[in-house]
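Input/output pair, single chain:
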Amino acid sequence: MKKTVLYPEHVRLQAQIVPFADYLMPLQYSSIANEHDAVRNHVGIFDVSHMGEIMIQGPDSLALVNRLVTNLVNPGPLNKATYAIMCHEDGGAIDDLFVYPLDVEKYLLVVNASNIAKDEAWIRKQASGHRVDITNLSDDYGQIAVQGPASISVVSPLFKQAIAELKFMQYLIDEYEGRPVMVSRSGYTGEDGFELYADPDTIWKLWKHFVDSAKVTPCGLGCRDTLRFEGALSLYGHELSDTITPIEAGLKFACNFTKDFIGKSVLEKQWTEGAKRALVGIELLSRGIARADHEVAVEGKTIGHVTTGYLLPHHASGLALALIDKAYSQIGQAVDVVIRGQTIPARVRDNKFMEKKYKR
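Output:
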């Protein structure tokens, strides 16, 4: 198993270590609930150095990136990141990712850890005939995410530039102890926060600064998942996959049909004519916790499955995201969730489990 540069820190802090995407990663340090609350109420820090970074540069780099991904990527302003999805021709998602335009001919793609090899192979295949250089820089980058309402107060003092002026999905490049750091006002928790990219040694120093100050709570993968779920943010392999399209996953905002991209014809047809499946919120009406792959049924007929489910801190009932037959996706629709052979009554609801607090 691989280890990030921060692995010794996780051991020192007595984190519960688990395998994830070929890495040994911290699941939790104290408890998932405590760390979840730290991010919602103050500030937490995550090791996300397992994420992948792939650079595409050259005269045809923008053309290739826009062919690869569903959203429109512009060469400027250069401080604006774009969330997008890479798709197969049939519309199934290869991965969801962030695109950072570092220059008019230089684009950094930040991809999911479990998909690095698959993504790189797909990108190289599609690059045939394009004047580009493709470099997998995943081992050259470390990454931490500082998330929560107090994140600006702990991140801003470290840099010379006006971090506070950044809005959600904007970034800048500054220095920390003489080394370049990309500071992005982004994250996957539904809170205001920052993702910091730098060489592994600099990420180590930044982590130590934040954690040793005792102002920032170290957080593991456990609450990272509860936080992104509460924010109704898709996770690849759950709400999005090779067999789940962005339209089915409710990600039309990340699809721009004014340009051509791989999978466009299928996704545009799903949008205009209606997809057969829809991602919905589910609320359990009695005790129970819906988990991924639990069946969702109506009058004994299976209509879909749970993609993610939790009993979240400070929520009275179990909640879930589920991919179901669109005919049953109306809010208020009565459904059942089958949990370990037991049928639990539930209803379809919106997936607004919380108000996102991004800096707009």
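The mean pLDDT is 97. Helices lie at 7-12, 32-41, 61-68, 116-126, 151-155, 200-212, 221-230, 264-273.
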